[in-house]
Structure formats: structure tokens, C-alpha cells
Specification:
Mean pLDDT: 88
Shape: globular
CATH class of the largest domain: Alpha Beta
CATH architecture of the largest domain: 3-Layer(aba) Sandwich
Number of strands: 11
Oligomer: single chain
Strand content: 5-15%
Order of helices and strands: HHEHEHEHEEEEHHEHEHEEHHHHHH
Largest sheet: 7 strands, mixed
Number of helices: 15
CATH superfamily of the largest domain: Periplasmic binding protein-like II
Radius of gyration: 21 Å
Helix content: 40-55%
Distance between the termini: 26 Å
Structural class: alpha/beta
């Protein structure tokens, strides 16, 4: 009988061993980085997701930083760069990687990204504690809950469990695994008594959602937007501002925070560890600019998401006051995730993904 790993005893050495198992191909991915590990400090190299988010990010933070610092930003666009960063830990070729609190905590445990400290990032002191993590602080806060079609669904939606209502069969959707599906899966699994090394409850619930309730898969924000507009989807997990955008475009939808709590994704660019000193200093200056109150207000205007800097929050222009959040509002988000075991989620992610593909999607 195979001995079950006790996650309570998962120390750094064990975690490294499990992380190494995520791919013999990770080392080969290092070649994707290109260039020299000793890139000059007048060059800032960023791994980033593409799409409108990268454009907004570059317009708000990137281009002004290039103008003020004289540095040139080199971008590599895509998803799932964590194996590349892990493979390059000894000689990293990139300075920053776009992350959320989950993935940054995982890379931080491997010493692949650097801890954020106020002595290097002065604006960090003004960021609300709810949006500060050891290896990252959010440039904005992205509330996540349920998008609900109020024309088709007449009864109040109050819980995550409402996704399983038989009345919504064929009109309920769940995010693609490599988009937001993995994150939401762990929330559902936890709410049903599961843990990262016991995902049976979550697998069972989502299998039922797909098989019995005929759930559709939403692939990204653009796909979800279209499905909500066409009313092909009546209820699904989604971002608050993106739900509002769909409503403005004509979809009869509203954003609902389930009573168990919404989710909170804290995005920014984590600082890759072990880069040359001058490169890391440049990276610290850049992330400090993402926490600047005026910059955050500008980014919030583009995205529709609340800023994380308390000065920015208290000085929002009149047309952005709807983004203000009290401490009680903040407390509604992220409380599910506060109990996430990020290291265990990372260590077991390949096994969990295999079960997802076979039992939920393939079942």
C-alpha cells in the first residue's frame, strides 16, 4: 500500500521534491527565456499574461516607467510560466512574473521569487493588509463571485451551491481549469469538506455539475462575456467588474457575493529572485510604482476594480466612488482562501488536474 503523504509534515525539502516532479520538461522550458541571465539593469524583463490586461498594465505602469527610468521593458506573453521560473532558479533570465497570491506563495516557498519588504518598496506601507502577501501585494483587488441572469432566474441567489439547482441545467457554466477553474475548484472542494490531498468532495460535486446539470465550460473573460450576452449562460462564477461590463453591454446580469464568501484574487508582478543586484533594484522600483495611489486610480478606471492603496481608496474621483470598499466589504472576499494550503495545492496539482480531466471533463 502506498503511504499517504501527511501534508502537516510537508517541509521545504519534501515540497521541493514534489515540485520537481511536476515536469522533467521544466528544464527544457528554460530555453524559452532567451537572452542572458546578466541582462543590463536598463532592461526590465517581464513574464505576463496577454490580452487587454497587459495593454492596460503597460499603458498605466509600463510606458510611464520606461519614460521615467530610461529602462526598456521586454515582454513575454502567455500563461503558466511557473515551470520556467522554477527551472531558472539558479540563473534566472526574467525579472518579474505576473502572479496572484496563490502562485506567488508557491514560488516564494521555492525561493524563486523575492519577499516584498517596505524598505525596498515604500508604497507597500499604504496597501490594505488584506491585499498584502509575503511575495506580492495587489495593484488592484478583483472581487469574484457569481454572475446571475436576473431575467431568467427569479429567485434570490445566495450560495455557491445554487450552481447545482436543477432549474439551471444546461445554462450553468464553470471556468476552464487553466483559466480560473483550478482556483474555484479548490474553493468548492473546501466548502464541501475537502483538502488539497482529499479532493474527492470537489471532484464529486463538479462531476455532478457537468453530468447532471450539464454545465458548460467558459474559457476566458471574452468567452464568458459573449455567453452572458447571448444568455447561453444564466449563472456562473465570474469577476465583479467583468459582470458589470456585461451588464452595460446589455446582458441582464448582476454580481452576487455568496454568503459563504466571495473569492479575492490579488494580482501583480512578483519579483524573480537571484537576479543581479541592479536588476532587482530596478524591479523593486517598478513594483513600487504599481502601488502608487495615482497610478492605481488610473488602473482602476480602466479595469473597474478597486485599488489596494488606502490613499487611493479614500481619494477616488466622484465618478469612481462605487469602487469604495469598507473593511466589512473587504472581509467578505477571500475568507474562503484564507484557509488554502498553497504548498499542498502546488505539490498535488498535477494529480488533481489528472483527476479533473478524467473524472469531471472526461466522465
Amino acid at each position: 500500500m502506498t503511504k499517504k503523504l501527511d501534508l502537516r509534515q510537508l517541509d521545504r525539502r519534501q515540497f521541493l521534491t514534489h515540485a520537481a516532479g511536476m515536469g522533467a520538461g521544466a528544464a527544457a522550458m528554460a530555453a524559452l527565456g532567451g537572452g542572458s541571465a546578466q541582462a543590463a539593469a536598463n532592461e526590465l524583463r517581464i513574464l505576463f499574461a496577454g490580452g487587454t490586461w497587459q495593454k492596460w498594465f503597460n499603458d498605466t505602469f509600463g510606458k510611464p516607467f520606461e519614460a521615467s527610468s530610461g529602462a526598456k521593458i521586454i515582454w513575454k506573453m502567455g500563461l503558466g510560466f511557473e515551470p520556467l521560473v522554477i527551472a531558472q532558479r539558479r540563473r534566472p533570465q526574467w525579472d518579474l512574473i505576473h502572479q496572484n497570491q496563490n502562485t506567488s506563495s508557491q514560488l516564494g516557498a521555492l525561493d524563486a521569487v523575492a519577499e516584498w519588504k517596505e524598505e525596498n518598496i515604500p508604497n507597500l506601507k499604504d496597501v490594505h493588509p488584506a491585499f498584502r502577501y509575503p511575495f506580492l501585494a495587489g495593484k488592484i483587488h478583483t472581487p469574484y463571485g457569481l454572475a446571475v441572469n436576473t431575467k431568467r432566474i427569479k429567485r434570490p441567489i445566495t450560495k455557491w451551491a445554487d450552481l447545482w439547482d436543477p432549474e439551471f441545467a444546461g445554462k450553468v457554466a464553470f471556468p476552464k481549469w487553466v483559466w480560473m477553474g483550478q482556483e474555484v475548484f479548490h474553493a468548492i472542494n473546501q466548502l464541501n469538506g475537502g483538502t488539497p490531498d482529499n479532493v474527492g468532495p470537489g471532484i464529486g460535486k463538479l462531476k455532478d455539475l457537468y453530468k447532471t446539470n450539464k454545465a458548460q465550460t467558459i474559457n476566458n473573460v471574452e468567452h464568458t462575456h459573449q455567453m452572458l450576452l447571448e444568455e447561453e449562460v444564466w449563472i456562473c462564477p465570474h469577476f465583479g467588474a467583468r459582470t458589470e461590463k456585461a451588464a452595460k453591454a446589455g446582458a441582464p446580469v448582476e454580481f452576487v457575493i455568496p454568503e459563504e464568501g466571495g473569492l479575492s484574487f490579488i494580482f501583480n508582478t512578483s519579483i524573480v529572485n537571484n537576479r543581479p543586484k541592479d536588476s532587482m533594484e530596478l524591479a523593486h522600483k517598478f513594483v513600487n510604482s504599481t502601488l502608487d495611489p495615482e497610478n492605481q486610480i488610473a488602473f482602476s478606471r480602466l479595469t473597474g476594480y478597486p485599488p489596494t492603496n488606502r490613499q487611493a481608496m479614500s481619494n477616488l474621483p466622484a465618478d469612481m466612488k462605487k469602487l469604495e470598499m469598507s473593511d466589512d466589504d473587504v472581509a467578505k472576499f477571500g475568507k474562503i482562501q484564507r484557509n488554502f494550503d498553497y504548498l499542498a495545492m502546488f505539490a498535488f496539482r498535477d494529480q488533481i488536474k489528472a483527476r479533473w480531466d478524467k473524472e469531471v471533463i472526461g466522465g
